[in-house]
Amino acid sequence: MLSSRPLITLLLATLSACQAGSPDAANDPLIQARQRWADQGLEHYRYQARQQCYCGPRALLPASVLVSDQQARLENPDNDELAPLARTVEAWFALIEEKQRKGWHQVDVDYHPQQGYPRHIRLDFDPRMADDEQQYWIKDLTPTAATP
């Protein structure tokens, strides 16, 4: 009589391989957006950012962010309350991925259809908790020359 062990091992390996690809990359908006972004190969760019949070009024002002060689900085660094907006696009993707992985109640993102960067991010940790919501807007992303 033949042993069923090799057949069971093969079946389990096949099932594991099928599950390893979940969620399906073709249906994951974050993966698709990251790919559109990576396809551009931008290393130097500028964008405008704004946040909505329960924080000081100076934190609600728009900010101009300059990114060069994966280093983001505020173009007007006088307002340190805007520091959370100084991120690379990849850092915005990492923030989104972290909140999804941690199971936040709401992680809604609108991605730019061609460039892939997140244009609007809505975050809410717990629907029963007041004042924990955060929103971010990113717009006018344009390539720039390398900066020293």
Question: How would you describe what is shown here?
Answer:
This protein is α+β, with helices and mostly antiparallel strands and 148 residues long. Helices cover 28% and strands 28% of the residues. It is built from three helices and six strands, in the order H-H-E-E-E-H-E-E-E. It has helices at 5-20, 29-40, 89-101, and strands at residues 44-52, 63-68, 71-74, 106-111, 118-124, 134-143. Strands 3-2-1-6-5-4 form a six-stranded antiparallel β-sheet, covered by helices on one side. A hairpin with a 2-residue loop joins strand 2 (63-68) and strand 3. The radius of gyration is 20 Å and the shape is flat. It starts with a helix and ends in a 5-residue tail after the last strand. Mean pLDDT is 80; it is low at 1-22.
Q: Measure the end-to-end span.
A: 74 Å
Query: What summary fits the major beta sheet?
Result: 6 strands, antiparallel
Average pLDDT rating:
80
What would you call the shape?
Answer: flat
Count of helical regions? 3
Q: Based on helices, strands and strand pairing, what is the structural class? A: alpha+beta
The parts where pLDDT drops under 50 for at least 5 residues are: 1-22
Give the beta-strand count.
6
Radius of gyration: 20 Å
Please estimate the helix content.
25-40%
Give the DSSP E fraction (strand runs of 2 or more residues). 25-35%
Tell me the strand order in the biggest sheet.
Answer: 3-2-1-6-5-4
| Sequence of secondary-structure elements | HHEEEHEEE
